[in-house]
Specification:
The chain is mostly helical. The protein has 3 domains: 117 residues, 3-Layer(aba) Sandwich (Rossmann fold); 107 residues, Alpha Horseshoe (Serine Threonine Protein Phosphatase 5, Tetratricopeptide repeat); 166 residues, Orthogonal Bundle (DNA Cyclobutane Dipyrimidine Photolyase, subunit A, domain 3), CATH 1.10.579. The protein contains 19 helices and 6 strands. Strands 1, 2, 3, 4, 5 and 6 form a 6-stranded parallel sheet that branches. Helix 1 links the parallel strand 1 and strand 2. It binds flavin-adenine dinucleotide. Its cofactor is FAD. It comes from Kutzneria buriramensis. Belongs to the DNA photolyase family.
């Protein structure tokens, strides 16, 4: 008789389009497993954890209550469960982040003669696969995207709850209580996708840059936990959806960058920036706190930071504006902001977050030229032309009509005065950049 297999879920909390699940099902009976790992949960931030717990509950429901939850170090826990079950193999979707790769190697070794099988990954093209002709990784997005498109990907895998004969094991933990505002799990993800695909996608090119509209997919948290695979989305796209396909390519690009250079999760991609002068001390700390709390006196920045605190999500355009403001107007190191984002974002993702921050800070891959510094006032006027986004998140400004919410000299007294002068700080940033340029 074929020994049972374990399907160890991690960033693939779904049953459809799941190649690893099909591979596990090939082996015989399958135990669905998730391990609550303190090394990942510790730094995760409450919003992301609550969303995870709710996604686990949804997966458990779809599995008829059979999801086995364990708690502890996977290097110990997974082999223990495998031995208890008498499993012949442990199946996973590959984890390509720095911690996951190391952990998986240790689990593989600890499993001894039990097979550890990686099938697929959370990406349409597994990081590390798309390379230049000389075998080197891409350092610039546009040629990466072209090569990624040329490489292509498989059709969505036909899998579901009936693909496997599921088994159970005694002694599982309870899924911790979650209280996510966002509907969690695979069904919710597919519904969110269907609504966007049949609605805002048609106007995505124009709508995606407008934080005052619902012009984007809101799929990032679902993609983060693999409630839907990007291949499922890509399969639904047509020739007119180039911009949306490109956004998914950014996600794949940053995962690829992190796979090749795990150090960039913590360090500047461009080492020239290691010498860049940042502010530190009490003033920097005070300004950083004002930024975190949405009290900078720049309306679109404050609206974004308050959206983050209220909804644990922020519009992409505004993420760029607030990140630029922190780094180039307040001269605070990018990693302070990246850490605040990771703690508060429901979609916090190491590859996307750290590399987008580095892109804005000028020290990342094909970074925006350092001297192109976002003006927080004109950005507000351009992308929130009627001021609706600002008024939604900054109650002190609700009485200000139309685009006047972006005029600093027209704002009411209860709203904070600007903590810095943009023109002055822009000059300081450019001088500091000049100092490291050569
Ligand atoms: C400073 C900063 C930090 C960010 N941190 C994160 C993060 O932690 N997690 C995260 O998923 N995204 C991050 N992003 C990228 C982007 O802001 C979000 O993916 C997007 O706002 C999510 O909303 P959406 O799903 O409606 O996006 P849509 O516009 O509908 O895009 C669809 C999907 O494409 C991907 N995508 C879009 N833009 C980017 C991008 N610039 N980089 C990588 N992937 C992208 C996402 O998976 C997104 O869900 C960050 C951007 C900036 C500027």
């Amino acid at each position: 008789m074929t020994p049972p297999a374990i399907m160890w879920f991690r960033r693939d909390l779904r049953l459809s389009d799941h190649p690893a699940l099909l591979a596990a099902a090939d082996s015989g009976e399958v135990l669905p497993l998730f391990v609550l790992d303190d090394r990942l949960l510790g730094p995760a931030g409450e919003p992301r954890k609550h969303f995870l717990y709710d996604c686990l509950r949804a997966l458990d429901h779809d599995l008829g209550g059979r999801l086995h939850i364990a708690h502890g170090d996977p290097v110990k826990v997974v082999p223990e469960i495998a031995r208890k079950l008498g499993a012949g193999s442990v199946h996973v979707s590959a984890d390509t982040g720095p911690y996951g790769r190391e952990r998986d190697e240790q689990v593989r070794t600890a499993l001894g003669d039990i097979d550890f099988v990686r099938t697929g990954s959370p990406y349409a093209v597994t990081p590390g696969r798309v390379r230049k002709q000389d075998g080197e990784p891409y350092r610039v997005f546009t040629p990466f995207r072209r090569a990624w498109l040329d490489h292509g990907w498989r059709k969505p895998a036909k899998s579901g709850v009936d693909s496997a004969r599921w088994t159970t094991l005694k002694g599982g933990r309870k899924i911790p209580a979650g209280k996510s505002e966002l509907p969690a799990g695979e069904r919710a993800a597919l519904q969110v996708w269907a609504d966007f695909r049949d609605g805002a996608l048609a106007d995505y090119d124009a709508g995606r840059d407008r934080p005052d509209r619902n012009g984007t997919s809101y799929l990032s948290a679902y993609l983060r936990w693999g409630c839907v695979h990007p291949r499922t989305l890509l399969a639904d796209l047509g020739p007119g959806n180039e911009t949306f396909r490109s956004e998914l390519a950014w996600r794949e690009f940053y995962a690829d960058v992190l796979w090749h250079q795990p150090r960039t999760a913590r360090e500047n991609y461009d080492r020239k920036f290691d010498k860049f002068e940042h502010d530190s001390g009490r003033t920097a700390q005070r300004r950083f706190e004002a930024w975190c709390e949405g009290r900078t006196g720049y309306p679109v920045v404050d609206a974004g930071m308050r959206q983050l605190l209220a909804e644990n999500w922020m519009h992409n355009r505004v993420r760029m504006i607030v990140a630029s403001f922190l780094v180039k107007d307040l001269h605070v190191p990018w990693w302070w902001g990246a850490r605040h984002f990771m703690r508060n974002l429901i979609d916090g993702d190491l590859a996307s977050n750290q590399h987008n921050w580095q892109w804005v800070a000028g020290c990342g891959t094909d970074a925006a030229p350092y001297f192109r510094i976002f003006n927080p006032i004109t950005q507000g006027e351009k992308f929130d032309p009627n001021g609706d986004y600002v008024r939604k998140y900054v109650p002190e400004l609700r009485g200000v009509q139309g685009k006047a919410v972006h005029k600093l000299d027209k704002l009411p007294g209860e709203y904070p005065a600007p903590i810095v002068d943009h023109a002055d700080e822009r000059r300081v940033s450019l001088e500091r950049y000049d100092a490291i340029r050569t």
